[in-house]
Design a protein that fits this description.
single chain; about 425 residues; alpha+beta; Beta-lactamase; 3-stranded mixed β-sheet; about 15% strand
Length: about 425
């Protein structure tokens, strides 16, 4: 399925952006992003379809992508099925669990509070949190939390069932449990510091649960309320919700499947879960259209002043391939054509996704597949970025480099699964 729309549905973005800026009462922002560069090549929709077909060939029942340009033009490609039982075609407009893309929402909320001088970015976080969340005297700063250099152990490695030796069996032991954020953090602290804060990068869900607690403490409101008030409602993101501990996705959506460790076994329906175990680090639900709207608003300066947006986008390399970098709750990839795109990936049981934008906001893409615990699917999704932003598929050598980088990211974002298991 391929569909390209005229400049229609998203012409309300400017008004929404104005509402967002007013809603959070941020300081004046000026020009938030770099001036647009020379016109980028048009998206290669045939190449995008080829990439999505490779996602399905790698083991996902279905995959889809929405490409959006700043002028409102968009194109949708969908392949495969959203429900193995019925064989219904994948619905590119459906909602899905976005996993760690949620981290950028959380980062924006924290940086809005920095802009309002209610949070200090480079001061110890312990004194800005409720007593006891972090040890008294801890040197971990808010910046350390945002860029994964805190040294906090990732509590998700200790979830019940993680080490039982079978991914589906392990998932069944925590999918319907409801966890308190403070208990998750306390579990991480029981392991002690993993390294000196600020000394190196190590991805940890604990960082963004602590940041969610910081947002709640400073605002005096539940995380979901703050997210709705400051981002979702002003931008008209009606497909996006944070409903922990409700187990349903709501609205139209593809069934999310967990790939069994033994690939000869059928895919497992993992759609329903509380997602409380991942909370502000990954529990949001959204759609391709909403996420593209979000990135366009962020790069336009609707959500953060120029200073805080620049801090978020100041990424540094985090892998040996040189293709992946990380900033403050934001990942960046350098593509085969040299273009760098900004956003985040998400992996949560049943779903794997990429959501990225150019720095100037001129083009966005969100790519989703309804299968997880499969590194081949995630790597194949990564190859869909090049046709969108470079105008052509990448070379075989570039695809191999991208796949290596995707393998590292998948290992970071897939709970309790080794890189070796993901490559089975």
């Amino acid at each position: 399925m391929t569909y390209r729309s005229p400049a229609t549905k998203r012409r309300t973005l400017v008004a929404a952006a104005a509402l967002a800026a007013a809603a959070v009462a941020l300081p004046a922002a000026g020009t938030a992003s770099a001036a647009p560069a020379a016109a980028a090549p048009a998206p290669d929709y045939a190449g995008l379809r080829q990439a999505l077909n490779s996602v399905v060939a790698a083991g996902a029942p279905g995959a889809y992508a929405l490409v959006s340009d700043r002028d409102g033009h968009s194109g949708t490609v969908g392949v495969g099925t959203g429900d193995l039982a019925t064989g219904a075609p994948i619905d590119p407009k459906g909602q899905f669990r976005i996993g760690s893309i949620t981290k950028n929402f959380t980062a924006v909320l924290a940086l809005q509070l920095v802009a309002q001088h209610r949070v200090e970015l480079d001061a110890p976080a312990a004194g800005q949190l409720p007593a006891g969340v972090l040890p008294a005297g801890s040197p971990i700063t808010v910046r350390d939390l945002l860029n994964h250099t805190s040294g906090l152990y990732d509590y998700s490695n200790d979830l019940p069932g993680i080490l039982v030796g079978d991914t589906v069996t392990g998932y069944q032991q925590f999918r319907y449990k409801t966890y308190a954020p403070g208990d998750l953090v306390a579990g991480a602290l029981s392991h002690g510091p993993q390294f000196t804060p600020g000394s190196k990068y190590q991805y940890s869900n604990t960082n963004f649960v602590v940041l969610g607690m910081l947002v709640e403490h400073i605002t005096g409101k539940p995380f979901a309320t703050v997210l709705n008030e400051r981002i979702l409602r002003p931008l008209g993101m009606h497909d996006t919700r944070f409903v922990v501990p409700r187990t349903d996705i709501g609205g139209r959506h593809a069934i999310g499947y967990l790939t069994q460790d033994d690939r000869s076994k059928p895919l497992f329906d993992a759609t329903a879960q509380t997602a409380s175990w991942i909370w502000s680090a990954g529990a949001a639900i959204s759609s391709t259209a909403d996420l593209n709207t979000y990135w366009r608003a962020l790069t336009a300066g609707a959500l953060l002043p120029e200073e805080q947006l620049a801090e978020m986008e100041a990424v540094v390399p985090v892998d040996a391939t040189g293709t992946s970098s990380y900033g403050l709750g934001m990942r960046a990839y350098t593509l085969s054509c040299g273009t760098r795109v900004y956003g985040h990936d998400g992996i949560l049981e049943g779903y794997q996704s990429y959501s990225y934008t150019t720095k100037d906001g001129s083009r966005q893409v969100t790519i989703a597949a309804n299968a997880s615990n499969n590194g081949d699917v995630f790597a194949a999704e990564r190859t869909a970025l090049d046709p969108v932003f470079c105008g052509a598929p990448s070379s075989p050598a570039a695809k191999r480099r991208a796949a290596a980088g995707a393998g590292r990211v998948a290992a970071e974002e897939t709970v309790g699964v080794s890189p070796e298991a993901l490559r089975k």
